[in-house]
Specification:
- This is 6-phospho-beta-glucosidase.
- With about 475 residues, the chain is of the alpha/beta class.
- The protein is about 40% helix and about 10% strand.
- The protein is built from 15 helices and 12 strands.
- It has helices at about 15-20, 40-45, 70-80, 95, 105-120, 140-145, 150-165, 185-190, 200-225, 250-270, 275-285, 295-300, 350-365, 390-410, 460-470, and strands at about 10, 85-90, 125-130, 175, 230-235, 240-245, 305-310, 315, 370, 415-420, 440, 455.
- An 8-stranded parallel β-barrel has the order 1-2-3-4-5-7-9-10, surrounded by 5 helices. The chain has a two-stranded parallel ribbon with strand order 6-8. A two-stranded antiparallel ribbon has the order 11-12.
- α9 (about 200-225) crosses α12 (about 295-300) and α13 (about 350-365) runs parallel beside α14 (about 390-410).
- The radius of gyration is 21 Å and the shape is globular.
- The two termini are about 15 Å apart.
Length: about 475
């Protein structure tokens, strides 16, 4: 056997992509709720188009999503049937603190998640909980400017302490902030930031990053103080960068791009700013406000383990003209002719997962956890909702073999693996339902039509077999 007998197999979702029930149970709007479907989505996500409430003429996919708010018992039953050891999920900040700066938590929201955790426990499934997953209460965006404002550290830590105390004994594994490096690419999604004309965007993004890094360190300390058994991780939108050619400047560009993401994890895992980041601030004349105690806060509470998402590798060049053959990824990338692509232009690279695991383990020497991996594809169900998704099985099989090789051959310490969107959900990047990842088909289309009926795909029983065999039976 190549994997530890306690290896954590499971799947992952996010509150804003599954729950719905946006204004139910005392919850109020969050930044992610006002991301519209369609051509304006990217402009809102990047902080270049202000949208603080639902507007006529737009469809907002998160408003109902797949209505897990009312279906979670049924959904957990399906996860249990597959044999999940772990379920990665996120909490909705505005379900627990509706405005974000409330003095008291919303009991109805706290009870909702407590019921979910008890149901998971009944089925022997460990929750892996992301405290905030692309999620800022809209009041904190309107009133304080999102994470650009240092006051959000206090609001976040109050929220974190509330859930860490309430769910003590029910949750052991925590992640502070989902894909923290997305802040640099989609500042409204990652930080609730809307830019004003003439602002230094780079300075604001890194100031917000500083606040998030402090908040993460403080939450890690709180978690350890409340229960020494708590394990706290950070979360990177991962995927190695390859140089487009063997030109030295292309290789240098690949290092530079890797560091854009590693910057956050360097701070969270090592407890201090890397020199290359400090030099960047100096070189680009970015003034990042830091208080005297900030260094000590970061140094005192590094994370226990490192988690990341992996969907594809990326290919980069130092020469702008090479990007004429770009792929459809959020991160600028050139089409790699050596790799096949998904229907959305993401390049399929199982060996890239093994490479990423090795890079991260070499860099941090901390246990790793793959918390998102999967194939977004158009599924065509039969009249019973059954999907012959052999393409998904093939993708996952090759990626599982790749991480098994990283463990068995390379000696990487890996805690677990959660596939993304184990139940079909709203795609974060596009807001589409048609970009499906799940083992469970949900009857809903891109316009919000459908019965929401759940049905098992072919991959459901395949993954059940994978888990039961601890990854030995992949065919």
């Amino acid at each position: 056997m190549t994997l530890d007998k306690n290896f954590l197999w499971g799947g992952a979702t996010a509150a804003n992509q599954t729950e719905g029930g946006v204004l139910e149970g005392g919850r109020k709007l969050a930044n992610i709720d006002v991301l519209p479907f369609g051509e304006d989505r990217k402009k809102v996500a990047s902080g270049d188009l202000e949208m603080m409430e639902w507007k006529q003429g737009y469809y907002y996919p998160a408003k109902e999503a797949i209505d897990m708010y009312h279906h979670y018992m049924e959904d957990i039953q399906l996860l249990a049937e597959m044999g999940f050891k772990v379920y990665r999920m996120s909490l909705s900040w505005s379900r627990i603190f509706p405005n974000g700066d409330d003095k008291e938590a919303n009991e109805e929201g706290l009870k909702f998640y407590e019921d979910i955790f008890n149901e998971l426990k009944r089925h022997g499934i460990q929750p892996l909980v992301t405290i905030t997953h692309f999620d800022v209460p809209i009041h904190l965006v309107k009133e304080y400017g999102g994470w650009r404002n240092r006051k959000l550290i206090d609001f976040y830590t109050q929220y974190a302490e509330t859930v860490l105390r309430r769910y003590q004994g029910l949750v052991k594994y925590w992640l502070t902030i989902n894909e923290i490096n997305i802040l640099l690419h989609q500042p409204f999604v990652g930080g609730g930031i809307v830019f004003k004309e003439g602002e230094n965007k780079e300075e604001i993004k890194y100031q917000a990053a500083h606040h998030q890094l402090l908040a993460s360190a403080l939450a890690t300390k709180i978690a350890h103080d409340i229960d020494p058994e708590n394990k706290v991780g950070c979360m990177l939108a991962g995927g190695s960068h390859y140089p487009y050619t063997c030109r030295p400047e292309d290789y240098q560009e690949a290092i530079k791009r890797d560091r854009e993401g590693y910057f956050f994890i360097d701070v969270q895992a090592r407890g201090k700013y890397p020199n290359y980041a400090l030099k960047k601030f100096e070189r680009e004349e970015l003034t990042i406000q830091m208080e005297p105690e900030d260094k000590e806060i970061l140094a005192a509470s590094p994370v226990d383990f490192v988690t990341f998402s992996y969907y594809c590798s990326r290919t980069v060049s130092a020469h702008p003209e090479d990007y004429e053959q770009a792929t459809g990824n959020l991160f600028a990338s050139i089409k790699n002719k050596n790799l096949p692509s998904t229907e959305w232009g993401w390049q399929i690279d199982p060996l890239g997962l093994r490479n990423s695991l090795n890079q991260l383990y070499d860099r941090y020497q901390k246990p790793l956890f793959i918390v998102e991996n999967g194939l977004g594809a158009i599924d065509i169900p039969d009249e019973n909702g059954y999907v012959e998704d052999d393409y998904r099985i093939d993708y996952l099989k090759k990626h599982i073999q790749a991480f098994k090789d990283a463990v068995e051959i390379d000696g990487v310490e890996l805690l677990g693996y959660t596939t993304w969107g184990c139940i079909d959900l709203i795609a974060a990047s596009t807001g589409q339902m048609s970009k499906r990842y799940g083992f469970v088909y949900v009857d809903r289309d891109d316009e919000g039509n459908g019965t929401l009926k759940r049905s098992k795909k072919k991959s459901f029983n395949w993954y059940k077999q994978v888990i039961a065999s601890n990854g030995e039976l992949l065919d």
